[in-house]
Design a protein that fits this description.
There is one protein chain. The chain is α/β, with parallel strands linked by helices. The protein contains 11 helices and 5 strands; from the N terminus they run αβαβαβααβααααβαα. It has a 5-stranded parallel sheet, with helices on both faces. Helix 2 links the parallel strand 1 and strand 2. Helix 3 packs parallel to helix 5 and helix 5 runs parallel beside helix 9. The longest helix has 27 residues.
Amino acid sequence: MRNRSHRSRAVLAVAAAALLGVAGCDASGGNSPAPRGTTANALPSPKPTPSWDRSPQSVAAVGDSITRGFDACAVLTDCPEASWATGSDPKVRSLAVRLLGTAGAAERSWNYAVTGARMEDLPGQMAQAATKKPELVTVMAGANDACRSSASAMTSVTDFRTEFEDAMQTLRSALPKTQVYVSSVPDLKRLWSQGRTNPVGKQVWKLGICPSMLDDADILDSAATLRRARVQDRVEAYNEVLREVCAKDRHCRFDGGAVFDYRFGTDQLSHWDWFHPSKDGQARLAEIAYRMVTAEKPVA
């Protein structure tokens, strides 16, 4: 009986010690290996691939007269070599030159912008750009949607949104991962304010440059003021559309209103029409674009 009792007590002691050991490990976190399949034995997760490449190797441009360098070199004439997006002029140092170098820009950049183009023309331009399979497409469009024969003729915000969405879908159908840099529409009212100081420019305006904003440039009565305010409001609404649509695409960057906010002075305006960017103005646009495209994070 005594030996059997001794053996029973020994078994109980061992069992108790084992239970205490398990409880102690659980309470302190323990140093014992984690069960198979837990995170302790898992390999480190790979870092996600960045969704934005800050050094794309080819560039296509779509848009309107600004991207064509209109009036940057001669009166009422395109000057694509002075384009902020793809131009070769060393005074401008276009976005393509800054990204690819002079030789690279000559070989791997394309300009499909058209003077006078509105947002409704962008899907066709995007289709052309997609044939080159660029790694980056630049977009600057919307000024001509506001620059109509009258304020009442401006493109509606609803149509502008639909047309921009169509343009993005056209590109995405062909190139799901191509990056898109979207410039805001410039502040047309500020361009009017700067240009109206020059009598030569105002004579060129009478040929039909942005009538909704520039007609009767020196008249400051309530009707003219209201008309210009309507145009300005529409431009701001267009920029909000550009921001919202771009935000839904992980490979798209909007400039955060940087071009709209840029204070073009007389040196940055064409001395042919005092409205479109001069070569100096085109260089400023190139600087803004390069800063946005190469930034680690998009503008909030």
